[in-house]
Design goal:
- The complex is a heterodimer of chains A (166) and B (502).
- With 166 residues, chain A is mainly alpha-helical.
- Chain A folds into 2 domains: 82 residues, no CATH class; 77 residues, no CATH class.
- A 3-stranded mixed β-sheet of chain A has the order 1-3-2.
- In chain A, 32% of the residues are buried.
- The two termini of chain B are 36 Å apart.
- Chain B has one domain.
- In chain B, helix 20 packs across helix 21.
- With 502 residues, chain B is mainly α.
- The chains are: A mainly alpha (166), B mainly alpha (502).
């Protein structure tokens, strides 16, 4: 059985063998990179020693995870929460993530104030806050954060299109 | 003595007191909101404290966490939803009391014993920390290496239902700590030519990602829109508390003791303290059959324990620089940022700072009484703040907080990446608290390991030749052997694991 729907997981879960394989590969890459580090002249123990031990630790854990899964007879490779077929919830999750990506892309050209305002307004409306409340809270919170971090804490929040105004 | 006077002067400064008051209200609110944890409160607070002097910065963290751990009891009793994981152990019990019409008594007991338990933990901290520091001053890199190993191992061992996954998480954190300039030779590692990565994986955006963003991702899919009816505490909160104290004073002492010991153990914090003390209370009770039906006895134990654990967790943090729980892991990160490397030398060089922390702890616990009372009385209003407004606002705070740490998008990128990664790990039953400990302690561990390796010329006996180092080393390796044996013989945990975190 490859994919299984269940009420027991929140969103998704691969079985431990898949998890172990993924971390085994990552640890392999990590150890491989340590071979490119130069030796520390005059010392037997260089900057590559510690990462190799840690990498070895991850390899050990990964192998144990795989062994355990194999011994227990193997669960489905991927378990999805039973609501994974309900598009509204998936969209909520994606939208939360998309808001962060939107900030990464838009904050430099647009500036902090418009970006933060749009993110909050968008999320409020999607999560069913009444439009008037959404608008007021988005304006007030954006102004408060800009004032507290931008003016009081002197964090150089991007000014973007409002550069001439601020 | 002058150091104590200096410390009083530092704390009783209008700005510092205002910061303490502000973070107390913040901690109360975050703790009382189900789904927002004390660790999350700290994570959100750290970017703000970054810009403060050490005393207000520590004051903010101490106060906010103390309030949050108590405030978690409020929705536990009223809605059966623990506000923080530290209240989960007795949420059912408190709620049963509410159903029996004893909400006032449940809240009064929670408040009074939280304050007393907190003060108990602080008293032990004040008595024990300077004594331990005098012992620790003689420690060499060998002792520190083993101490760090032991601390990290305990984190894996106690913090989760599945030690193997905790261990994996710890190694991932230590691997993250390797990114950047290596502490022994100055060689850039795993930077892939990226300038931002040269400074390493910044700890605060990682923290915000792992503890706050991952929580937002989870919260987004469980957003409920309907309102809940919140029962109100209308009567006097103090009626009957005196009688409870008279009857169960031993439970209070025992809960506080257990909380202090578990809090002081590296890796285990308030949430574990409350589970253990509740279980002990039930096991040794004369009326175990009453547990789970709204019986006050176990609550006395557990609510004392989780608050006493908070102060005790600072003992290893201040004396050895090894965190007692995920909150002190954050504190140690903050201390490093402020250029005050925690450890026994702090007690010698800047004792006034240590005293200031003690004073703030006492103030925070005393402040908990009036503020907690106000929070209980206004719980109806606090709990009515809808999550669909709260989550997007928290998202903006996360973004700005991470941005402020690097003054560039690097912090935000790190936060998003770590948020998704942390969410992925917790979906798979891998706890993130050991990872954070690994990230914080990685550099210290590597530094002590490398200098010990060079001193001992690679021989394991060199690591064990000093008496304290030998004892610590044997204890640590014994734990490792036990874990290895368990790891090979154990079965996978069932599909549903609770995410950990205090």
């Amino acid at each position: 059985m490859l994919v299984f729907l269940s009420t027991k997981v929140r969103v998704m879960r691969f079985n431990d063998a898949v998890l172990g394989t993924a971390f085994l590969l990552l640890a392999g890459v990590m150890i491989a990179i340590t071979f490119s580090f130069p030796d520390f002249p005059g010392q037997n123990y260089g900057p590559n020693l510690f990462p190799r031990i840690i990498g070895g630790g991850i390899v050990g854990c990964s192998l144990l995870l795989m062994l355990r899964e194999w011994r227990s007879g193997g669960r489905p490779i991927l378990i999805l929460a039973d609501w994974a077929r309900r598009p509204a919830r998936l969209a909520s999750f994606a939208l939360m993530l998309a808001s962060m990506v939107f900030y990464l892309v838009a904050s430099e050209p647009l500036g902090f104030i418009p970006t933060a305002f749009l993110i909050q307004l968008g999320l409020f409306l999607w999560f069913g806050v009444c439009p008037l409340t959404a608008l007021i809270v988005a304006v007030v919170m954006t102004a408060a954060v800009q004032y507290f971090f931008g003016s009081v804490m002197r964090v150089p929040l991007p000014r973007g299109i409002l550069d001439s105004v601020l | 003595m002058t150091a104590i006077y200096t410390a009083f002067g530092m704390v009783f400064d209008p700005t510092v007191l205002a910061v303490i008051m502000g973070s107390a209200l913040f901690g109360m609110f975050v703790g009382a909101m189900p789904g927002l944890t004390a660790t999350m409160a700290t994570a959100l607070l750290v970017p703000v404290t970054f810009f403060m002097a050490p005393v207000p910065a520590l004051g903010a963290i101490v106060t906010a966490t103390a309030m949050a751990i108590f405030a978690g009891d409020i929705p536990a009793a009223m809605l059966r939803m623990p506000g923080t994981p530290a209240s989960a152990a007795y949420a059912d019990e408190s709620y049963e009391m509410t159903k029996k019409g004893q909400l006032d008594l449940a809240m009064g007991v929670n408040l009074v014993f939280s304050v007393l338990g907190g003060i108990f933990g602080v008293a032990i901290l004040i008595l024990l920390a300077p004594v331990l520091a005098e012992v620790a001053i003689n420690f060499s890199s060998f002792e520190y290496f083993w101490l760090a190993c032991l601390g990290l191992t305990c984190a894996v061992f106690i913090g989760t239902g599945d030690p193997l996954k905790g261990l994996l998480s710890l190694f991932i954190g230590l691997a993250f700590a390797c990114v950047g300039i290596d502490p022994a030779a100055g060689q850039p590692r795993f930077t892939f030519g990226n300038i931002d990565l040269l400074s390493g994986i910044n700890f605060i955006p990682t923290l915000i990602g792992m503890f706050a963003v991952s929580e937002l991702l989870r919260g987004a899919v469980t957003m409920e829109k309907g309102g809940r009816s919140v029962p109100q505490a209308i009567g006097s909160l103090m009626t009957g508390v005196g009688a409870v104290f008279k009857k169960y004073w031993f439970n209070f002492l025992r809960g506080s003791m257990i909380g202090t010991v578990i809090g002081a153990l590296p890796g285990a914090g308030a949430d574990i303290a409350s589970w253990v003390s509740y279980a002990v209370s039930k096991k040794t009770s004369k009326e175990p059959e009453k547990f789970g039906t709204g019986h006050i006895e176990g609550i006395v134990d557990a609510t004392s324990a989780n608050n006493s654990a908070l102060g005790a967790a600072w003992i290893p943090a201040l004396v050895f620089g090894i965190p007692g729980d995920s909150i002190t892991a954050i504190v140690i990160g903050v201390l490093y940022m402020k250029g005050m490397n925690p450890g026994p030398t702090v007690f010698l060089q800047t004792p006034e700072l240590i005293y200031a922390v003690f004073i703030i702890f006492i103030i925070a616990n005393l402040l908990m009484f009036p503020l907690g009372w106000a929070a209980i009385k206004s719980a109806k209003q606090i709990l009515r703040v809808p999550r669909n407004i709260l989550l997007p606002v928290i998202l903006i705070f996360c973004i700005v907080g991470s941005f402020a740490m690097t003054n560039s998008l690097y912090g935000v990128i790190l936060m998003v990446a770590m948020g998704v990664f942390g969410w992925f790990l917790e979906e798979h039953g891998v706890p993130v608290a050991p990872l954070i400990l690994g990230l914080v302690l990685g550099e210290m561990l590597e530094q002590n390991f490398m200098s010990s390796m060079i001193k001992a010329d690679g021989s394991l006996f060199g690591f064990l030749s000093r008496p304290i180092a030998g004892t610590l080393g044997v204890a640590t390796m014994g734990l490792w052997a036990f874990m290895a044996w368990r790891g090979v013989t154990s079965r996978p945990a069932p599909a549903m694991d609770q995410p950990s975190g205090a």
